Amino acid sequence: MALRFYNTLTQQVEPFTPLHGNVVRLYTCGPTVYNYVHIGNLRTFTFQDILRRWLQARGYKMDHVMNITDIEDKIIRHAAAAQQTIYEYTARYTEAFLEDTATLRMQRPERFVKATECIDDMVAAIQTLEQKGFTYMSEGSVYYRIAKFPSYGKLSHNDFSGIRAGARVDVDEYDKADARDFVLWKAKKDEEPAWRTPFGEGRPGWHIECSVMAMKYLGETLDIHTGGVDLTFPHHENEIAQSEAITGKPFARFWLHAEHLSVDAQKMSKSVGNFYTLRDLTAEGYAPEAIRYLLASVHYRKKLNFTFEGLKAAATSIERLRNYKRRLETAKFAPGTNSRLAERTQAALKAFDESLDDDLNTAEALAAAFEYVRDTNTAMDSGEFQAGNAAGGLEFLARFDSVFDVLQPTQKTGGLSDAGIDAMIADRTAAKKSRDFGKADQIRKDLAQQGVILEDTKDGVRWKRQ
RNA sequence: GGCGCGGUAGCCAAGUGGUAAGGCAGAGGUCUGCAAAACCUUUAUUCGUCGGUUCGACUCCGAUCCGCGCCUCCA
Length: 466
Description:
Layout: E1 4-7, E2 12-15, E3 23-28, H1 39-57, E4 61-68, H2 73-81, H3 86-103, E5 111-114, H4 119-131, E6 135-138, E7 141-144, E8 182-187, E9 202-204, H5 206-218, E10 222-228, H6 232-247, E11 252-258, E12 261-263, H7 278-283, H8 288-297, E13 304-306, H9 308-330, H10 339-357, H11 362-382, H12 390-403, H13 418-433, H14 437-449, E14 452-457, E15 460-465
Parallel strand pairs: 3-4, 3-10, 4-5, 10-11, 12-13
Antiparallel strand pairs: 1-2, 6-7, 7-8, 8-9, 14-15
Helix pairs in contact: 2-3, 4-5, 5-6, 8-9, 10-11, 10-12, 13-14
The structure holds one RNA strand.
């Protein structure tokens, strides 16, 4: 079966092909840069990375835009508290975001867009909405009138017909015409950063950012738009209302939403003390690859319960795959090619691909990988595996790693050089030959203390860094 | 109240109307000077509970219990 995704809009799994040729126009909601991102955010970004990697594995070219929200209430507040401009303040966390996603080996989107770089476009969009009668002013702010957009609610599958247009709700606080109306342009208050516009000084609402940035670079109809489940309503619903009111065309064909991550079955919160950033985890010695593996190993539409036990299990699982890879690369096999195993490789590739084609079923893809590894390891033990089969094993791992990207250890700085390690191994081999096992074991222990693990195999000594 | 998601072995987690993938952990074993790695065996007669449909359901239907998310900012 062909590549297919679950579409929040239709609540069904649908075959996917791009609208234009083989280029996928993808918009993913990026971070609001007022702090370090936490592992829950990173779960969603990991999902987006898996998505774009798999699309590419399937032969598509990516045109992927991710926004950086760098003007927003919390940013204004935090920047003021730090006595910095919003630009100074957000620069730091934007940089941190790029570092964190790079640490987790996420591919960079073709384009990052900052909200503050698109203010003119947002103003123009709001003016278009104004001309079409979708807006009204209230206390200096511009609001979107959802009563003018009959299909409002189609993404989140909420029925708003019961809310009477014109009914005034929360009059004192918002003075909106309808409880669901949302702000397009916020009037300036106090010393807040602001831009001069035809409708007064102020700053853009959050929702208009994404509509404008997406359409500016990707056109009026996107192939895929993604974000966390919590963005489905109201953020994405509002994006649809704005964009489709402007263009009269479908805004995005596929909406993919990533479920949340919880920690020890609870929502992450600073007060509970179960709130983690990537930096918290790497500082405790957890490998970025293990974190990436854990975040990617659970299907993106299923809640992921983060535990340290799970993180350790992820690290062990990766180790097993790496050991397998080293065995493929270093063991000596009998010449020739076993045809049954060659077929087994093809079957494994097929199973792997079909799993990911099925709405990115990463858990099933992992199962396909481990079954293949077990079978071929068994074949190596029995001698059935031949030299000509090694390429197939490596091909499978390359396929695997083009999506999961966890096999290459993150390089640690310092430590012994390869040549130094080889010299110590030579000493140990000599000691073993003269049956001086005490000395041999001592060398192995010394190496282990420096993070180098030795394995004696019938083809000689194999080593790895821990 | 509305919308949505989930409850599968110690933990994590796939899955199909035809009799339970995979990973981690545990136990035993093979191999090895020892270790490591790898492999083998073993750990759910059972898939929240109760009914129904069916030759047959964990998978379909109904009910029910429990947990969670969104409905205000939020990945």
